[in-house]
Amino acid sequence: MNAKEYVENVIERVKTKNPAEPKFHQAVTEVLESLVPVIEKNPKYMKYKILERITEPERVVMFRVTWEDDNGEIHVNKGFRVEFNSALGPYKGGLRFHPTVDLGTLKFLGFEQIFKNALTGLPMGGGKGGSDFDPHGKSDAEVRRFCENFMMELYRHIGQFTDVPAGDIGVGAREIGYLYGTYRKITNLHGTCVLTGKSVNWGGSYIRPEATGYGATYFLLEMLKSKGEELKGKNVAISGSGNVAQYASQKVTELGGKVVTLSDSKGAVILDGLTKEMWDALYEIKAIKRGRIKEWAEKFGLEYYEGKKVWEIADKVGEVHVAFPCATENEINGEDAKRLVNAGLIAVVEGANMPSTPDAIDVYFENGVLYGPAKAANAGGVAVSGLEMSQNSIRLQWSREEVDRRLHEIMVNIYKTCAKYAEKYGHPGNLMMGANIGGFVKVADAMVDQGIY
Length: 453
What we know:
Blueprint: H1 3-17, H2 22-33, H3 36-41, H4 44-47, H5 50-54, E1 59-68, E2 74-85, E3 91-97, H6 103-120, E4 126-131, H7 140-154, E5 163-167, H8 173-187, H9 211-225, E6 235-238, H10 243-254, E7 258-264, E8 267-270, H11 276-288, H12 293-300, E9 303-306, E10 322-324, H13 334-342, E11 347-349, H14 358-366, E12 370-372, H15 374-377, H16 380-394, H17 400-424, H18 431-449
Parallel strand pairs: 3-4, 3-5, 6-7, 6-10, 10-11, 11-12
Antiparallel strand pairs: 1-2, 2-4, 7-8, 8-9
């Protein structure tokens, strides 16, 4: 069997064994198809069945979460933790609280996390977890009660040398605080790196909230440099208005780019650059009050498009030089990508996980658009989570400047790794191929070294 046949067989096996999980199928297909030249040059990966092993989680934990709302009504949600691969270190990946959470979504996210974490160069495996619980519209007391009951089961499966969850969609500083407090009470352990994204007052790292947005912007700078371009003066369309979008918009503005869009699940906003006053108001509405971006648009007299994605209104913005999707998976489809190309698109940098469909990615490559895939571009968040673990281990806290310097250095190195492996395997400039191969080789070699398990 040649390498191409082997890869095709593994992809088909994954689809057969994991029915009704299209996002997982999509993630596996994208990664494995790019590995054909690697398998050809390294038949040991076929001999040791690395692809079969790396596409099967080492462990999946599913559990019931029962909690009581403020009116005394009992609710039941599902909880999950997918511990995908620990060849490089403890499982590491976020917890997502959102109604769309299911096993297939978490398997896709956990699979992507394996390679993302490998690219950082830090000793972290890949995992993901969460619940179909929706914190939006819940009181602090309701969220606390849910988190306490969620951790009553999860604590058995995590630990600083085993599995280290972080936050994700629906899990911010408030939720991490409740989860950590419950873990500490149950286990009588404090000061450990069992959870990251903690407050800087009790074991967290500076720059952690900013890390994904800042890191993706640093990656964008390297992409633009490769073509002799700079961010200054570029119109940047950002989707989302949560943590990643907030800090991406802040860093883009600081470095001379102009933010021209933001959004949430209810609609999109067009703007002509972002001032500090506007950013502060956005943060208060979205991060503190957990309100809607429509309120922000009304406050500053901005164009608001109810029920629209950013990518559907690109033709109303004028020129769009950079697309910066920071909302959710598969938010940019092929038609959206064509609309962006017609608006002057030169680069896409992914702040969300897998936000571009395969059709959209084809459009990028067909039109010579620079493409920074999520597993490389948005690795800044988990990179600083890894740095938080390091600080916890040595019982020290680094300054904001030190953490930001290390983050910048990690993102530059990730870009260099992607570019190196793309060149080595005959696809110069294809950062998606480079990210997939660079992350895979590191994990696969560790799996071979450690034997069959």
